């Protein structure tokens, strides 16, 4: 049945912790991404997270899930979540839950956090990627993923997940994080994203030089840095997420 390199979650303890976090953060709508064999799906339904929409890429899994949960209040859609139009969801606060596929985890997180009706999420990531998401300024792993995630959600630790919690076991450990919507920055998101990503393209350079290399006007950058009370020698990894918002507003 394994076509897409899935690692199926088999730990009852981890399933319980994810379910408990999802129940605590529950929203009006609930979407599970990549349910696989439905171990987490069953726990979510048993906990009362209904109705549930499950988006699964594997056709065989879709047939399996549809048969297993035929009498439950769950709808299974066969589609890659990255191709799934979120406009198909009801216009109401939505919670997303998933043991995310490692290869697409960052893209899925970005899509979810950018959804107009995103309210909460409980996601499992490769441990290092989770560390990148929660990294703070001056941490080695601090970068665009941390800045752009932390500006859209309050992020908290749920649990660590060892290799043995899966069948077959992956080569790396995992970590579960919970996300709660915060007030989004008022600045243009595309402009902010461009500034942040441009800044970290040259981590060893000062922010001033990194943005100049990206095509920004040097005089405007200097003025913006001074307006934000940031030294001209500051480096990209030394700036807090909210400072990137202020900097973008002033450039």
| Number of helical elements | 10
CATH fold group of the largest domain: Rossmann fold
Strand order of the largest sheet: 4-3-2-5-6-9-7
Number of strands: 9
Poorly predicted residue ranges: none
- Shape from CA axes? elongated
Query: How many discrete domains?
Result: 2
Radius of gyration: 20 Å
Span of the ends, CA to CA: 52 Å
What is the level-2 CATH architecture name of the largest domain?
3-Layer(aba) Sandwich
* CATH H level, superfamily name of the largest domain: Vaccinia Virus protein VP39
Class by alpha and beta content: alpha/beta
CATH class of the largest domain: Alpha Beta
The proportion of residues in beta strands is: 15-25%
* SSE succession: EHEHEHEEHEHHEEEHHHH
Protein described:
With 251 residues, the protein is of the alpha/beta class. Helix content is 37%, strand content 20%. Strands 4-3-2-5-6-9-7 form a seven-stranded mixed beta sheet, with helices on both faces. Helix 4 links the parallel strand 5 and strand 6.
